[in-house]
UniProtKB/TrEMBL annotation, chains A, B:
Species classification: Bacteria, Pseudomonadati, Pseudomonadota, Gammaproteobacteria, Moraxellales
Enzyme class, broadest EC rank: oxidoreductase
Gene Ontology molecular-function annotations: histidinol dehydrogenase activity
Active site: 331 (proton acceptor), 332 (proton acceptor)
Function: Catalyzes the sequential NAD-dependent oxidations of L-histidinol to L-histidinaldehyde and then to L-histidine.
Pfam families named in the record: Histidinol_dh
UniProt keyword Metal-binding present: yes
Residue numbers binding NAD(+): 134, 195, 218
PROSITE patterns attached to this UniProt entry: HISOL_DEHYDROGENASE
Pathway per the UniProt entry: Amino-acid biosynthesis; L-histidine biosynthesis; L-histidine from 5-phospho-alpha-D-ribose 1-diphosphate: step 9/9
Protein's name according to its UniProt entry: Histidinol dehydrogenase
Binding-site residues for substrate, renumbered to this chain: 241, 263, 266, 332, 365, 419, 424
Catalytic activity: L-histidinol + 2 NAD(+) + H2O = L-histidine + 2 NADH + 3 H(+)
Organism: Acinetobacter terrestris
Length: 433, 433
């Protein structure tokens, strides 16, 4: 089999460097692309609807004659839903229900308390007013992404959820529209690219400006989101998808191999890593990957992915695996062993942890309940899955009593003087003198 | 008095436009600055300690001979704390205690639940491993900023808090070091600028690479934080400080005027807005601002700030004020009226809400408890005060049972086929067939 996938062992002299090389992945920013995107944003800000329409006709070959042709009605969403085959409609409904149930558990409430001095302190939680969800068009137009972005926003109580989805040649995936209907999307525009991001960020005559934009897209979309960050909020810029599967003890090598391939089939730069202390299992998984590839429609993508970025890693023991996992901070982590829960307690960094032999990553992509928008490229070290908390924000609450403020005002007076902020000091002083 | 501050009334024909103009503030990105910052980052990545030392000697005129001269010991922090005057030490301790108490209430715990099918779902919460806190040097070297950044990280359970603070000519504010000691900062390097941000983001021989960088800085620091975003997490890029004071009913105009000036003294581009339905009070506040300015050390800054960006706004009634406040999404909001709590319930967007006549914004800067790092420039529409949640992150937990997975695996199979992801479908299918 030879070059199917690199093989590493922690016993190798060169392991540390080889493992670091495996993880290295730097996206290079292309100055030409940034310039193009900046120009599109500037033009959309200046010319609004007209420019978005023009670019949509040009880039998407959309047959629209006027901007209003680019908005879908709730009727259209509903009829897309009603037109689905029974099994697909039921699957979509089950997925939506489960995603909603999980995200409801994430919803946060405000709180207040009264301190020992009689002052009230607290944290108020409010939903964002209006958000934009970007859904890619064409082949990568996934209904599951619609659910994963729109449901948390809906659960958070966002008053207006605007979806944009490009329709190349005017064509749309009805399942995407059905998902929008189910998830509670309020308005849908069939626009895409940097022009859609600009329209959402700054608003046009027709597209209302939003407060935050989430959802995946190509490099134009990613660059545009980065450019409008600050004007609006954005979610993380997603890198290539990754899975790290750890297995020990009784396991079915065929299942594990297919789990590895389920990430590899996404993208030639996706990363699939299999780790085990069991050399026999490592061999069996390698063999099963080879066998599966023969029958996989996306075998070519998967083969490139595992050859370039995949690895089979032999470790001495479970503790070594834990250390490697915490170094990787994988987007998806499968722990396929009897003591999965126990092991998960030692995992500090991962987007989502799938435990046991009956929890393939693929169910997390669709219907387990938790979000499938997860931190990639090691960013699980400092960021979280997309969630209801991304569509809520906090305000601090402070209310002092006439007595209770005195100690605080004196303290603020002393410290403000140390910082040479005299108006601060005097403003505080008025309240205790 | 004439041009002290612009005056607007919602009854004016031109009000809408004038109010929009007041809020307009766009930071222009300077391509030369970005180029300089990119070069510094590239050089620090390549040459590590040596380059950081060189720039520190050059920009800060620091007398250090070797990189180790740029690290402070815990002994130095402790003796800075012990050397404080009693009243200052007590004020700092009270502030630290209160900030800690409030932030402890923010700490989030993980949860799990078992669904109707017998599958376990949940959310695990973990602190970041290591964070970097940027503290400006020189005049803007505020001990309060050290507390507001370090205490939430410490409460979150961050294992290593690294502070960087430039020391122009080798000089440091002892109160800043004392605050670092109190707040539980683990290591301090006397470096600053884009070179400090680069060292924290990528690590050098001596400075450990961190997972997130927070804290305010000049435009080099802001540009560097933006550039390393993705490699590490960052907090929001802060804009100029703002206050919006709303008052009605019995109030002391002098107090209100000083509250307005406490933001205006920060910066010539700070924004202070006073809103009331009471024209008499509007006149009194304007008069009091003029009087206060005569005695204020930072009168020149404050005068420029209110002349350029301040406003006195007359509204018809409270509801009009609520609508304007939600449009502004102010960083700091004072509600100086008897029904402050009732009114606060209608405020959807604000960084912090100070209620009643005994809650000047200045106590929030130092010791009320809530964080003083707040969303500026209208970003309270989609973001929150700095908090413990910025130093924690979440991982999703999924563990299916052999029976419980069946429904989910079937659903995933159907949906994965719709998305043409065959390995996903097969990986799911193994678990129910």
């Amino acid at each position: 089999m030879g070059k199917l996938m690199r093989r590493l062992s922690t016993q190798d002299q060169s392991f540390k460097q080889a493992f670091a090389d495996l993880l290295a992945f730097e996206t290079v920013s292309d100055p030409e692309l940034l310039k193009t995107v900046d120009q599109i944003i500037a033009d959309v800000r200046q010319h609004g609807d007209a420019h978005v329409l023009k670019l949509t006709q040009q880039f998407d070959r959309h047959p629209a004659h006027q901007f209003s042709d680019l908005e879908l009605t709730q009727e259209q969403l509903k009829s897309a839903f009603e037109g689905l085959d029974n099994d697909v409609r039921e699957a979509l409904e089950l997925a939506e229900n489960r995603i909603r149930e999980f995200h409801q558990a994430q919803k946060q409430d405000g709180w207040t308390y009264v301190d020992a001095l009689g002052n009230t302190l607290g944290q108020k939680i409010t939903p964002l007013d209006r958000v934009g969800i970007y859904v890619p068009g064409g082949l990568a137009s996934y209904p599951s992404s619609v659910l994963m972005n729109a449901v948390p926003a809906h659960v958070a109580g966002v008053a207006e959820i605007i979806m944009v989805v490009p329709a190349p040649n005017g064509e749309l995936n009805p399942l995407v529209l059905a998902a929008a209907y189910l998830a509670g999307v309020h308005r849908v525009f069939t626009i895409g690219g940097a022009q859609a991001v600009a329209a959402l960020a700054y608003g046009t005559e027709t597209v209302p400006g939003v407060d935050k934009i989430t959802g995946p897209g190509n490099r134009f979309v990613a660059a545009a989101k980065r450019a409008v960050f600050g004007q609006v909020g954005i979610d993380m810029i997603a890198g290539p998808s990754e899975i790290l599967v750890y297995a020990e003890g009784e396991n079915n090598a065929k299942w594990l191999a297919m789990d590895v391939l389920s990430q590899a089939e996404h993208d030639t730069v996706a990363q699939a890593v299999f780790i085990t202390p069991d050399e026999q299992l490592l061999n069996e998984v390698e063999q099963a990957i080879e066998e599966h590839l023969a029958a996989l429609p996306k075998a070519e993508i998967a083969r490139t992915s595992i050859a370039n970025r995949g690895a089979l890693v032999l470790v001495k023991d479970r503790q070594e695996a834990i250390d490697l996992i915490n170094q990787v901070a994988p987007e998806h982590l499968e722990l396929c062993l009897d003591e999965a829960q126990e092991m998960s307690e030692q995992i500090r960094h991962a987007g989502a942890i799938f435990m046991g032999r009956y929890t393939p990553e693929a169910i997390g992509d669709y219907c387990a309940g938790p979000n499938h928008v997860l931190p990639t490229s090691g960013t699980a070290r400092f960021s979280s899955p997309l969630g209801v908390y991304d569509f809520q924000k906090r305000s601090s609450l402070i209310m002092c009593s006439q007595e209770g403020v005195k100690t605080l005002a004196k303290t603020a007076d002393v410290l403000a003087q140390q910082e040479n902020l005299d108006a601060h000091a005097r403003s505080a002083r008025y309240r205790y003198q």
